[in-house]
Specification:
Layout lengths: L8 H8 L17 E6 L1 H4 L14 H9 L2 E4 L7 H7 L3 H8 L3 E5 L2 H7 L1 H8 L8 H26 L6 E4 L10 H6 L3 H14 L3 E3 L2 H4 L3 H4 L9 H27 L14 E7 L2 E2 L7 E3 L6 E4 H8 L3 E4 L4 E4 L2 E2 L8 E3 L2 E5 H11 L4 E7 L4 E7 L3 E7 L4 E5 L9 E5 L2 E9 L1 H5 L18 E7 L10 E7 L11 E4 L2
Parallel strand pairs: 1-2, 1-3, 3-4, 4-5, 6-16
Antiparallel strand pairs: 6-7, 6-8, 8-9, 9-14, 10-11, 11-12, 13-14, 15-16, 17-18, 17-23, 18-19, 19-20, 20-22, 21-22
Length: 488
């Protein structure tokens, strides 16, 4: 397919060229709080000025004007995640970070664009853009390198400042109808999902820039370029500024919160979280998970847990003993309590109690701060963690394997996202395809099923086997066989 996309030579030089350190372009205000922007040419505002210094039209300065912040824009055109890691070792960056009140971190686009160099060259030459297996592998490796570098970057920043960090994900600069868009979309969902997980794990605030530009590239990107135009920078600034307000509101609620909490999250300082149990969303809003702001203990409804996992429960208010499936819950699991008419207990404690009541199990929990969702999953007792795939999905498997069927469970941030079964060719020839879900444990509805032929040995499985993935979320469609590392 011919691609009608002309890219000026200046763009190629900017994105693939020098990554020299740019000195401080703006003096910090004596009394103002300071926003420090770390990133590449997007933070720099490339092609919106003379490109000798960060543009006043760049989103960091627009955010600074809106929030009355001094701005120190350290964006470097052409910088990759590896380049930023090196920059953070210099005294210039380290000293600038010490004065930061808030930090925006937008990096990784050049990792992908560098890998897409052959495709971009074809587009510039008006040739057919071909996504070869080699280029696709290069894109995937670039995405993985960026994912590996981001936690290191955050750690380096935290050595010099405790200022909150807003982590910007990556947008696709290419129009939907272009072959370049098709190519970059091979990896952007994976890297953005991983970036959200990295943000949560490292106590950063995720900012979704992808949604700002998606399906609007022609209106928000400079002609024959990949950089935001003035309107694109303005919308980017509005998104970042809005997230700063949310972040500060959450922080204020946490610092001023009390221990009062009710079953609808209405207590002063209490935050109400949505809840998933084994990937199944809890529907009853009265039984949401609650987070006490002063004492960070997550509480959840006992009845909701019991119903979801199919156990009976009895609460004796006189003795304050909780009984699950006829078994008293030990004090080590935490004390249940009645709060505004609801029987609640510490969430992880409740999960361990339920797991013990049904005969044991591996308990995995996590929180998605961006959506205020608490996730809780119980897996069979004989599984153990065996690896993490490219999107940060932790994999658990029976070790040793019960049979050639597996299964392998994929859990992301405490949420059950897929189950994988493995078949040998002889199994398929014998029509041995019936598989069972987790015995007695809930599972969400299957979104789609993928089959992958794996010619290599994996997780102790022989070379030459079929992997069947039952996905519970469409966001993982591009990750069918993206295992990045395995350890026993």
């Amino acid at each position: 397919m011919k691609v009608k996309f002309a890219i000026a030579a200046v763009f190629m030089a900017a994105m693939l060229g020098s990554t020299a350190i740019v000195p401080d372009a703006f003096a910090q205000g004596a009394k103002k709080s300071t926003l420090v922007a770390l990133g590449d040419s997007i933070s720099f505002g490339y092609n919106l000025g003379n490109n000798k210094a960060p543009s006043p039209e760049a989103f960091p300065f627009l955010v600074g004007a809106a929030d009355h912040l001094a701005v120190n824009d350290l964006g470097v055109p052409g910088a990759t995640t590896a380049d930023l890691l090196e920059s953070l070792k210099t005294s210039t960056f380290q000293n600038d970070l010490k004065s930061a009140s808030v930090i925006t971190l937008g990096i990784g686009s050049n990792d992908i664009l560098h890998a897409a160099g052959p495709l971009i060259a074809e587009a510039v030459a008006h040739q057919t853009v071909k996504l070869t297996p080699q280029v696709k592998a290069s894109l995937e490796e670039a995405a993985l390198n960026a994912i590996r570098n981001l936690p290191k970057i955050i750690d380096a920043i935290r050595k010099d400042t405790s200022a909150p960090i807003l982590l910007l994900n990556l947008y696709d600069p290419f129009a939907d109808s272009s072959a370049l868009h098709t190519a970059t979309e091979q990896v952007l969902p994976m890297i953005n999902q991983a970036m959200e997980l990295i943000a949560v794990q490292n106590k950063c605030f995720p900012v979704d820039t992808y949604k700002v530009f998606n399906n609007r590239q022609q209106q928000l990107i400079l002609p024959n370029d990949v950089h935001p135009n003035k309107l694109g920078q303005q919308l980017l600034a509005a998104t970042v500024e809005s997230d700063i307000v949310k972040m500060m509101t959450m922080a204020k609620g946490s610092s001023q919160g009390s221990t009062q909490v009710n079953a609808q999250g209405g207590g002063a300082g209490a935050k109400s979280f949505s809840l998933t149990l084994n990937g199944v969303p809890v529907q009853n809003p009265v039984d949401e998970v609650l987070l006490d702001a002063k004492q960070p203990t997550m509480l959840s409804s006992v009845s909701q847990f019991a119903t979801a996992y199919g156990v009976t429960y009895h609460w004796n208010p006189a003795t304050k003993v909780l009984i699950l499936d006829g078994k008293p819950v030990a004090k080590t699991f935490g004390a249940p309590a009645i709060i505004h008419g609801q029987l609640v207990a510490p969430t992880t404690a409740m999960g361990r109690a339920v797991a013990q009541a049904i005969g044991g199990g591996v308990v995995v929990a996590g929180i998605d701060q961006s959506t205020l969702t608490a996730n809780f999953t119980i897996l069979p007792p004989s599984v153990k963690r065996v690896g993490v795939n490219a999107a940060g999905v932790v994999q658990y498997a029976f070790v040793p394997a019960k049979s050639s069927f597996g299964p392998i469970y994929g859990v992301q941030n405490g949420r059950l996202t897929f189950i994988e079964y493995v078949f040998k060719p002889s199994d398929l020839q014998a029509s041995t395809t019936g598989v069972a879900f987790i015995d007695r444990l809930p599972t969400p509805s299957v979104d789609h099923v993928d089959f992958v032929w794996n010619s290599e040995a994996n997780l102790g499985l022989p070379a030459g086997h079929v992997e069947e993935y039952l996905y519970f979320t469409p966001a993982l469609a591009a990750l069918a066989s993206s295992a990045a590392s395995t350890s026993n």
